[in-house]
TrEMBL record:
Signal sequence annotation: none
Protein name per the record: Glutamine--fructose-6-phosphate transaminase
Biological process terms in GO annotation: carbohydrate derivative metabolic process
Record key words, sorted: Repeat
Gene Ontology terms for molecular function: carbohydrate derivative binding
SUPFAM superfamilies xref list: SIS domain
Amino acid sequence: MTSRMRQEIGQQPEALRQTVATLLPELGAVRAAAARTRQVLFIARGSSDNAAVYGRYLSEAYAGRLGTLAAPSIATSYKRRLDLDGVLAVAISQSGRTEEIVETLEWAKACGAVTVGVTNGEGSPLAEAADVALLTKAGEELAVPATKTYTTQLAALAVLAVGLGADVDPDDLLRVPDEMERLIAETEGSDALEKIAAELAKVPGTVVSARGIAFGTALELALKLKEACYLHAMGLSYADLLHGPIAVVDADTPAIVLGAEGSPTLEGTVALAERVTGAGARVYGIGGGADLASAASVALPGPRLPEWVAPLGLIVPGQLLVERLARTLGIDPDNPRGLRKVTQTGA
């Protein structure tokens, strides 16, 4: 029986088509909001926080605007008022009903920020609270691990980056759904997916690493491995990994390394893979083209997309790996223990 998670992975290309078609016409509203600001503050938790990391890299590397990740407790627990004049506050929530995120967005507005809400929840409190609402079109997501709601969030943040003045071609977004379809077919048609899942099923943990535009994808894959497979997965920038934690990578703790083709960080990603395999540990590559594939023990394909939209495709082989590994371990990937679809973190 096909899991709901697998079904929803397969629904992503159409969800992306609908989301991009809906949001590109909103560029005028985004540009008007961005014109009143000079930097971007991202407000999120969980998978949405990993999407925010992608948004931050887009803001800084492509739009030339400082991007930062908010600490919601400043608003909800410390209740400190900050000067947010000139700030575009972007709150990201799949449901739009996470009280902490809505409260933090309202706090940001009260502190002088212009606000944007990214959510799949039309009519949700978040959409109602934001000056500009970017509504994704993922449809209802039934599996607890976020897949299509996550990638449509990435699409919304890519549209946001265009509105911020990023030096990119918006038409690149139109190529993503077809690439997703190719990646799903190619990944499931390879022996590598089953091989990696079988090997990961025998170890207690793994390190997931990337840098730059792919870093948020590494964090998201690590989160999914923890959520759905109960694996001790550590998501790290390879720069941080090399500062000490690389000692944990050994025969019992392999590394999953992700890279976007054409990225200025890809050379370092390949060097990390070579160092890990040179030390006798296993490396599983995702993306990065032929260079990363040749340095890895086993590799899954990556998207053939420009770097700025590569993360929308790069997570897909990782999602398929998580779903396959969960089933290999005898875990229901749709309903991991201890988790609900909407998490309320309180103050």
